[in-house]
Amino acid sequence: MVQKNGNQFVLNGQPFYVNGFNSYWLMTFAVDESTREKVTELFNQASSVGLTVCRTWGFNDGDQEHALQIKPSVYDENVFKAFDFVVSEAKRFKIRLILTLVNNWVDYGGKAQYVKWGKEAGLNLTHDDDFFSHPTLRGYYQSYVKTVLNRVNTITNITYKDDPTIFAWELMNEPRCQSDPSGDKLQEWIEEMAFYVKTIDRKHLVDIGLEGFYGPSTPNKVKHNPYNYSKQEGTDFIRNHQVLGVDFASVHMYADSWIERPIPNARITFIKSWMKNHIHDAEKYLKMPVIIGEFGVSTKYTGYNTSLRNNLMSLVYNIIFHSAKKGGSGGGSLVWQLFPEGMEYMDDGYGVYLTKSASTANVIYRQNTRLSLLNSLCKWTCRWGCKKKHGVDVLNYKDEL
């Protein structure tokens, strides 16, 4: 199992820095034999450039095609077997998984589906954010979590909660609770669910899935948010991550869509500020690693070209690498999002196709080379206090920040 020691991820006593990607669609594509090969194809390509962690949806709720949870506590065994296949293929290609357990958004069901189920059961619900507060809906979620964590993989015969292929459980994709800008409602949900996951599985890491917006507990930091109403989303980066049972912090970052100011280099300035502030806060206040759980550059962005994408990705990678060299809290990053060829119809503009863009694949591979050296050269017992010069110091990379 990947674990954490202070503000570092560790594996077998050595540092473990994450170079990874998002591919949310894996379970649904694994259901049909005609599309299952895309899962294998993706893992094979990702492994070839050294990517080590994949974040993917561990849910599909309600009336969706290939839904895993059809109704509360009612599951489609064929879809669960597809889930088993995804985990087993990741294991085969030595890629670890961050499995997200529900969506804030309506895609693949989300909290709105839980509220719909509650209304069908006769509950008096008025807002999708009742997902966070109503005890029955909390019970629905906990039942789902318990089922997934205790699932025995039909291919590997390993229980999910015992499988080191799983890097972490993520409570929710991008939780927001706009009905309560104070953040109390979401805070209570995080406290309950992080503890609940740990009562079932103390071996795996847990993260929340936040985007990283600063909230009421740190009024001096809300100026760093990408837009003014970020502080009213009901999330609170530092307060949320101080919850017992949460092991590492998550941050998302979309400079091209979040930053609308037509100022030269505004997006570069934002990336530097957003990452460095969260790495600093993870070190000083949270004492835990932080992962950039989603970042990317959209082809729909005015002025987009491959060179721009490569430069912004390199900037993200450089900031992570410089933090890692110092033993800081920058634990890694996960690009949004990887596709194999033939899936262009699902591309939201952020799709990265390793076989179609050699230059981008090279940017990713170089980051893996650097992080792999850090992962292998220092034992954790060194605690980064040694003054030895390692091979990583002479790697010829453009590291300007």
Any overview of this molecule?
The protein is α/β, with parallel strands linked by helices and 401 residues long. It has a single domain, classed as TIM Barrel. It is built from 12 helices and 13 strands. The protein has helices at residues 26-29, 33-48, 77-92, 110-120, 130-133, 135-149, 184-200, 237-241, 255-258, 266-286, 306-325, 358-377, and strands spanning 3-5, 8-11, 14-15, 18-22, 53-57, 69-71, 74-75, 96-100, 166-170, 205-207, 249-253, 290-295, 330-336. It has an 8-stranded parallel sheet. α10 packs parallel to α11 and α11 runs parallel beside α12. The longest helix is centred in the C-terminal third of the chain and has 21 residues, at 266-286. It is globular.
Secondary-structure map with pairings?
Blueprint: E1 3-5, E2 8-11, E3 14-15, E4 18-22, H1 26-29, H2 33-48, E5 53-57, E6 69-71, E7 74-75, H3 77-92, E8 96-100, H4 110-120, H5 130-133, H6 135-149, E9 166-170, H7 184-200, E10 205-207, H8 237-241, E11 249-253, H9 255-258, H10 266-286, E12 290-295, H11 306-325, E13 330-336, H12 358-377
Parallel strand pairs: 4-5, 4-13, 5-8, 8-9, 9-10, 11-12, 12-13
Antiparallel strand pairs: 1-2, 2-3, 6-7
Helix pairs in contact: 2-3, 4-6, 6-7, 10-11, 11-12
